[in-house]
Structures are given as C-alpha cells and as structure tokens.
Amino acid sequence: MIRFKEINTVSNYLSLLRLLLAIPFWILLDNFDSLRYIIFSLAVFGALTDIFDGYFARRFNQVTEFGKIIDPLADKICIGAIITKLYLLNLIPAYYFYMIIGRDLLIFLGGILLTKKLGKVLPSNMLGKTTVLIIGIVILMVMIGVDQGAVYFKIIYYASLLLIVVSFIGYSLRASEFFKGTKYGSV
After folding, report:
1. What is the CATH number of the domain that holds 135?
2. Angstrom distance (rounded) from CA 149 to CA 168
C-alpha cells in the first residue's frame, strides 16, 4: 500500500505535473501551426521535469514505489498524447505512432503483471530512458519544423526506431528473467 509520505516528495510532484501536462498538450496541439513554439517550450519544460524528478529522488533519497509508477506513467501519457496528436495532424507516419504506442502499452501491461507477481515495481532501466529521450528529440524536431529529409533528422529518427525495438526486447527479456525467478534478489 502506498502511503501519503511516499507521494509527498518534490520528485513525485514533478512527475504529477508532467502527467497533467498531457492536458494542455492535447488542447494546444489542435492549433499546432500557430502555437508551435509555445508547445515546443512546454515540451522542453516537461523534459526538464523528467530530468529533475529523477535527480531529486536520488539526491534526497526519495525513491518510492509510487515514484517508480508515476514517473514512467507520466512519460507514457505525455508522449502518448503528443504522438497521437502529431499522428492525427499527419506530422508523423502511422507506423511510428503504432510502434511507440504499442511498445508503451505492452511495457505498461507487462509491468502491471510483474508488479502483481513480485509485489514491487521494477524501476525503468537506462535503455528505456535513452529510448524515451531519443523519441523526445524526434518529437521536438517535428514540433519546430525541422526538415525531415535532413541527414541529422533521419539519423535520430532511425535511431529512435531501432531503440523502440531494442528496448522492447530488453524489457521483455528482463521481465522474463523476473517471471522465471532468476532475478528476484535484485529488485
């Protein structure tokens, strides 16, 4: 059971704020062309909350089970809202949308199953965090209108596709090890 003391940390409030940012993203993206730079600034702010929530949690020894849930959930919901709107606005291809949403949904559902079995939440790993970072960079580049034919955009874009697949495989293997009981001691 999660107690208020676990929720009442600066890092968790930053994650909750990022979670709530999905609402203005959803609304503002309807006027993408005229609000592009405001949306971009809001996305940078959201990314900063992600960086600082992790920093504060580690710095002040406030890593909590609630934080392990709310931090990646906030990332998934915010990115899900943005990526859905960008897809609906035809700014990203359908396969990119489905890969991101599919990966996040499967990881989320797998995490729920694993949490029920272990009684604890597994923290995100560096591969997953790197994947979210690179997807975030792609999203930011789309938001500011970077030429999607440019070499640097293609490199980052294809890196994000590769990371989506590799991180999903990594999470699947990690979950499989825990389900088999080979890593219970390292949670």
Report:
1. 1.20.120
2. 27
